[in-house]
Each structure stands twice: as structure tokens, then as C-alpha cells.
Specification:
Blueprint: H1 2-19, H2 29-35, H3 45-53, H4 61-69, H5 84-93, H6 100-116, H7 121-134, H8 137-155, E1 167-168, H9 172-181, E2 186-192, E3 198-203, E4 212-216, H10 218-227
Parallel strand pairs: 1-4
Antiparallel strand pairs: 2-3, 3-4
């Protein structure tokens, strides 16, 4: 497991460098919606999703953007956590000791979650845990690549430093997932910014002196408004 931890550290450091780059582009949802409908394009959504599910490592930045943000236009898009498998998987992961049966059940729950939500980062993390335990290198590499495609799409959408350059996410849970990925800890405040589509999370004390990160959650707010529900 120490070797796997070292791999994760390398991945975090590598992607953190992307976060420091000014080379980012906010998603243009109207254009994305139009582009992913063109079946003759490399941006056609079924093609992107098929590549994603195989752990394709050749996605361009534009293709990742259409893959991740294009999901909000799919009939299966639900930004809140409603699956029964979330609790079941969390309960197992909270156990102090896990046996072979537990690992198999975790993998089953993660697979079910990903059928409902292909960008469920916590389910991907659970798969990584199991494949590391099984020493299944090929499956581990495939899931790392799937997770990388999601994280890079988000990282390249902004820098999170203000409500004018936020990270764009399609689920509130991805805000918290990105904190750990970037090496931060949650500081206790989760708040919608008035008169904006942004939410911010405060950060615990860190060596960078950053006190909060901003996230654009416009698809989440749009979904909540359409379905008459509160913050998701």
C-alpha cells in the first residue's frame, strides 16, 4: 500500500501544477450542448463516454471539457447523492478491518454507483482501493485515467481564486473531492455567493495562505430550480 500512496502523491503534485497555470477555459454550456449532438464529430457524446469508460489516455482538453460538462445534458444527470449504494459503500469503508468479502462488496457497490453516475469520484476511489489490494495493475491504471480525465477537466476550467475565475463542477460533492486532490482540507464554511452561480468552501490553514476556493455550480442550481428543491 505504501507504493500506491506514493503513486497518489505523484499524481497530486502533477495535477497541482495544472492548477497554477493561467491556461484555463470556462465551459460554454450552450456550445457544448450543441457539439455533443453531432454524431459525425469527435465530440459526439456517446463516443466520448465510450472512450472514457475504457480509460482512454488520449483525450484532448476540449474533449475532456465536453465529456465532463456535457453530462449535464444527459437524461441520467442528477447532481445530488440519492443512491442507496452511497451509504452501503461508506459503511464498509468505515470498517477498521476489511476482509476479501468486504473488498468484493465495495467493488460491487462502486460499480453500481458508476452505472448511475459515471463521474462519481468516490466510487472511483473505492475501485482504486480494491484494485490496489488485489494488485490488479491494469484495472488500477484504467481507473486512474478515468479519474484523471475528470480532474483535468475541472482544473482547466479556472483557478478557484475568485468568483470570476472559479472551478466549474457539475456536482457539489466534486467540490469536496477537489479539495483533497489539491492538497487542502475543508475549513468548515460552505456558502453560496449572493447574486452569482458560485459556491465557496473555506480552507483550513495551509502553507499557501489560501482561505477559500470558489466553484461555479450553475448546472446544480439550474437543476434545483427546475425540480423545486433547495441546494444539493
Amino acid at each position: 500500500m505504501k507504493k500506491i500512496s506514493a503513486i497518489f502523491l505523484f499524481v497530486i503534485i502533477s495535477f497541482a501544477n495544472f492548477a497554477q497555470s493561467p491556461d484555463f477555459e470556462a465551459p460554454k454550456y450552450n456550445e457544448i450542448e450543441e457539439n455533443i449532438k453531432n454524431e459525425f464529430s469527435n465530440l459526439y457524446y456517446p463516443k466520448l463516454m465510450e472512450r472514457y469508460n475504457t480509460g482512454d489516455s488520449t483525450f484532448t482538453a476540449d474533449e475532456r471539457r465536453h465529456l465532463y460538462y456535457g453530462y449535464v445534458f444527459q437524461s441520467t444527470y442528477i447532481p445530488n447523492e440519492i443512491s442507496e449504494y452511497n451509504g452501503k459503500m461508506s459503511d464498509l469503508l468505515a470498517k477498521q478491518y476489511l476482509d476479501d468479502k468486504d473488498y468484493e462488496m465495495i467493488l460491487d457497490y462502486a460499480n453500481e454507483l458508476l452505472k448511475e453516475d459515471p463521474f462519481n469520484i468516490r466510487a472511483l476511489n473505492a475501485q482504486l482501493l480494491v484494485y490496489a489490494q488485489k494488485n490488479d495493475v491494469e484495472s488500477y491504471k484504467k481507473i486512474i485515467q478515468k479519474k484523471r480525465n475528470i480532474q483535468l477537466a475541472i482544473i482547466k476550467s479556472g483557478d478557484g481564486m475568485s468568483k470570476t475565475t472559479p472551478y466549474y463542477v457539475i456536482k457539489v460533492s466534486h467540490e469536496y473531492d477537489m479539495l483533497g486532490f489539491l492538497g487542502f482540507q475543508f475549513g468548515g464554511t460552505d456558502m453560496i455567493v449572493k447574486r452569482s452561480n458560485c459556491n465557496y468552501l473555506s480552507l483550513a490553514n495551509n502553507r499557501f495562505g489560501i482561505d477559500k476556493l470558489y466553484f461555479d455550480i450553475s448546472p446544480v442550481l439550474k437543476y434545483a430550480s427546475k425540480h423545486g428543491i433547495g441546494k444539493l
